[in-house]
Model the fold of this input.
Amino acid sequence: MNDVFLNGDFIAAEHAKVSVFDRGFLLGDGVYEVIPVYASQCFRLESHLNRLQRSLDAVRMTNPLSGSQWRTMIEQLIERNGGGDQSVYLQVTRGVAPRDHVFPEGVEPTAFAMSNPLQAVPEDYKSKGIAAITVPDIRWQNCHIKAITLLPNSLLKQQAQDVGAQEALLIRDGYLTEGSASNAYAVIDGKIYTAPKDEKVLPGITRELILELAASANITVKEQAVTEQQLRDADEIWVSSSTKEVLPVTTLDGVAVSSGKPGEVWKKIDVLYQQYKQQGGF
Ligand SMILES: Cc1ncc(COP(=O)(O)O)c(C=O)c1O
Done:
């Protein structure tokens, strides 16, 4: 079994224990990050650590580790778990305290990290595309915080799974926000549309890279949310996340998206994405 990091120590996963009074367990009072690792190298670690800091600031929690402490710990964790391609998960909760909604004083945050082999994306997700459904965005008003309270996201993803789809695309006030565990894009007349970075979406690290790659290829990006109707009429729909990269959505609510095949703009971005990964030095 793997080693994990818990409050300053590396220990075997089966021995890692957290108190039942941890506020993460009782109140979902915590934030997290997921970082892909290719050939033992973290993908865009700086961006992930910056987002972790922003999430912590937003919920008024102290960062238990400095940037260099996180980096060293993550390097060691990857090494201990055999290197190669992994997925690193970081979680910080407000710590252990008698149950109370009000924040406790003088409590040490709980810091946890684990690393697992990176699951390869099934080949047909790229060659054929994935199926998605549209569902109302039932989440809260602070979706820019990467909070561990994922019950709405989990319910929505399960709804997709129940009908054989891989992702749920979320509609709020008539507009597409993002996916249950991904950012979402529509391609209309050769331009890429994705919701702006505000409190309705998570500012994805993969999204950040996609926008850079699009700019390098002179593809216009509009950080503008599309309506549900524009989504249904789009030439292409994609989703992105750290562990799934960029995937074409070829069926929406059981109906083919345009030709029903992965689109040309997606293909261009995917080629650039794979090249970027192979170059290393992220
Ligand atoms: C709700 C939501 N939006 C967007 C993303 C994509 O973020 P990233 O590209 O940083 O993985 C995720 C990732 O899990 C997510 O859960």
User: Anything to note?
Assistant: The chain has a mean pLDDT of 98.
